[in-house]
Structures are given as C-alpha cells and as structure tokens.
Amino acid sequence: MEILPSHDAAVRAGFFAVLLALLVLGELLAPRRALLLTRGSRWLPNLGVGALNIAILKLGLPVLGIGLAAIAESEGWGLFHVLEVPGALSLPLAVIALDLTIWVQHRLFHQIPALWRLHRMHHTDPDFDVTTAVRFHPFEAILSMLIKSAVILLLGVSPLAFLTFEVLLSSTSLFNHANLKLPDRFDRFLRWFLVTPDMHRVHHSVLRHEQNSNFGFNLPWWDRLFGTYINQPRQGHQRMTIGTGDLGTASDQHLSSLLAQPFRTA
Fold first, then answer.
1. Model confidence pLDDT, tens digit, residues 40-93
2. C-alpha–C-alpha distance, residues 79 and 51, integer Å
3. Rounded to a whole number, what is the largest CA-CA distance in the chain?
4. Model confidence over 7-31: pLDDT tens digits?
5. Distance between CA atoms of 64 and 202, rounded to whole angstroms?
6. At what angle do helices 5-29 and 66-75 cross, to 10 degrees?
7. C-alpha 156: how far from chain center
8. Distance CA 187, CA 181 (A)
9. Where are the domains of the chain?
10. Percent of the chain topping pLDDT 90
C-alpha cells in the first residue's frame, strides 16, 4: 500500500505508544539507575514539550517532512530520481543518509554556542529515562525538520523512506534513552548495530568530554568512524552525574522553565 502523508501521524503514533509502554514497563522491572526526581515532576513536562513539538510540526509546518517527500516524488526532484535509483536501493540509502545527517546535526548543536543554547534543554534533565527522548526545544525541532527537508529535496527521499526513517529514529531514541539494564554481554553485542542505553547515557554525562561523544541515536557506526565513541563513562553508570551541572532542580523542570531555557544565562 502506498504511504500517503495522511498515514504518517497514525503510523508514528502507533509505534511510539506501544514502544513507550513497553520501555516504561522495562524501566520499572529492570532500572539501570535510581532516579533523582519523581517521575511526575519530569514526565509531564518532558512529554508535554514532545507533544508541543508534534503540534507545531504537524499543524504549523505540514508541508515539511513527509509532505515535502510526497511533492518531491510526484515532481521527480532529487538525486535518486535523476539517477533513476530503484526504490529497493534508494530506501536504505535514504535512511542511512538521513541518519548521518542527524549525527552531524547533533554534533553541530554541541559545537556552535547558539545551537547549544537550544539543545541544552535536552541535557539539563537531571535524570535519564525514556521521556528524555522527547525533551527537545521546539526551535530545535523546527531546525531539525528544516535540515531533514533539505536532504529530502537533495536526494529525492520518498515518503515511504522518510516515514521508515522517522519511525526508526523515534523508536531507537526511546530505546537508547531508557533507564534500562541490559545484560552486559548483550549490550556489547548490540551496540555494534544499534545505539544502546548504556552507550548513549555516556553522552548525557556532566563531564564535557563525555558529553561530546556518542552522538548517534540510531546507527552506532558514525561515532566509531569519526572518533567520538566512548565505551563507558569514567565514573561508571551508577556513579556518573547526568545533566549539565545547572538547571536540574525540580523547579527547573516545569514546562515554562524548559521553554525559557535558551534565553537564560545559566
């Protein structure tokens, strides 16, 4: 069946809801770390800002993303259409290209001060669990969609390829932010193919050199390839400090405080 833009929200929402429920259950049964703050003080604002981002992108900017992919496909725009790359090949190439794009974007958001002020909100969460996966400032969400839309136009990413990537990205982001204890041997094996919670948790360390590592959300190869991979946190997963060292109190977690963070000097 052809994937139309109108199916996008339903497909993504279905995958998101099922995986979120499973990971929340996993966190309750096998937590990796004890949480510093109550779930209620963090989950509502984290999920609230995630819902706000969806509303902005779907209602305010509906032409971007999968809508733009549908237009590019109908008009024959992009490198894949010019070279007549078959769908069986263009789909995995598009997913890999988009994943590399997000990796580069993520690294730039850490290196450029103005972009870090937006991305910092994701890192000021003093705990690390599945809801951290959707804790991104709306301005960052908009910029990210603009960047992905540029790749859609450049390559001619199909709606199905873009939907596949978005489902993979949201699903793996939920997974690798989960406060979930995996068996060590399984984690070592899995992180050759997928970013695991232990691998990504290093990136949320308060230590700057660890914070500037393990940028991947989905594929783990880019960090190994470009020399930004760190295997384990220096202080261990139980003793490491999550966050940025500031803006981590319970009062800082209110939705209004999160949205105001880029404009704060702290």
1. 999 999 999 999 999 999 888 888 999 999 999 999 999 999 999 998 999 999
2. 34
3. 54
4. 677 778 888 999 999 999 999 999 9
5. 32
6. 140
7. 23
8. 9
9. 5-263
10. 89
Q: Kindly tell me if the per-residue pLDDT of 108 is higher than 70.
A: yes
Residue 53, token pair as written in the block: 């981002």
- Single out the residue of 173, 145, 143 nearest to residue 69, CA to CA: 145
pLDDT at 1: 41
Rounded distance between C-alpha atoms, residue 56 and residue 61, angstroms: 7
Cα–Cα distance between 238 and 132 in angstroms, integer? Answer: 18
Query: Distance between CA atoms of 206 and 158, rounded to whole angstroms?
Result: 39
| Tokens 């914070």 sit on residue | 211
Report yes or no: 210 and 203 within 8 Å, Cβ to Cβ.
yes
Q: Show the DSSP H helices in the chain as ranges.
A: 5-29, 39-55, 66-75, 79-82, 87-111, 113-123, 138-155, 159-176, 184-190, 197-201, 208-211, 221-225, 236-239, 255-260
Question: Cβ(211)–Cβ(204) under 8 Å?
Answer: yes
pLDDT tens-digit readout, 207-256? 999 999 999 999 999 999 999 999 999 999 999 999 999 999 999 999 99
Q: Which residue has the tokens 């604002």?
A: 45
Given the structure tokens 């989905």, which residue do they identify? 218
Integer Cα distance of 120 and 123 in angstroms: 5
Give me the torsion for CA of 35, 40, 46, 47, rounded to 10°.
Answer: 130
